[in-house]
Amino acid sequence: MSPPRRKKHPLTSLNVWNLKNTFTENDYLNEFVLWLEKADNIARIPPEPGNEQQLKEKLEQVKLLVEELPLRQGILKQLNETGGPVLVSAPISPEEQDKLENKLKQTNLQWIKIGLTLTQKSKQKAVP
After folding, report:
1. Which SUPFAM superfamilies has this protein been placed in (predicted)?
2. Which of 45, 114, 46 is nearest to 76 (CA)?
């Protein structure tokens, strides 16, 4: 019996001809940025003193996001790998190239920040 086939994320089967679509029509980069914003918003919710239920729920949300980090890291890696060829070979204007390059750089910086924040918050303990 053969092992079960793993479902590939859509970004794992890109080719050069649809790279521009990755950054525009399909907009995986925007989806990734939205996930980062969601994660940042959850991480920023301050705990209410004495509200054990709120703290427990927040920690659970953070832990779920932390579980997604490896998948999200793979998506960002693919975006970075496909971003270079898009910026060099895609028939897009220099302004659009700059815009995409800056967005990708900002996404990488935000990724580092959110990854550290989520990891730190996931190590917090709920009040028993």
Report:
1. Spectrin repeat
2. 114
The whole-angstrom separation of Cα 126 and Cα 54 is 10
Length of the chain: 128
> What residue segments make up the domains of the chain, in order of their start?
16-45+52-86+95-122
CA 128, CA 126: separation in Å to the nearest integer?
6
So what's the pLDDT on residue 11?
44
Q: pTM score, two decimals?
A: 0.72
Burial class (CB in 10 A: 0-12, 13-18, 19+), 114: buried
Distance (Å, rounded) from C-alpha 56 to C-alpha 32? Answer: 26
- Helices 28-44, 52-89: crossing angle, 10 deg rounding: 150
Asked whether the predicted pLDDT for residue 81 surpasses 60, the reply is yes
Report domain 16-45+52-86+95-122's class: mainly alpha
How far is Cα 61 from Cα 51, in angstroms, rounded to an integer? Answer: 16
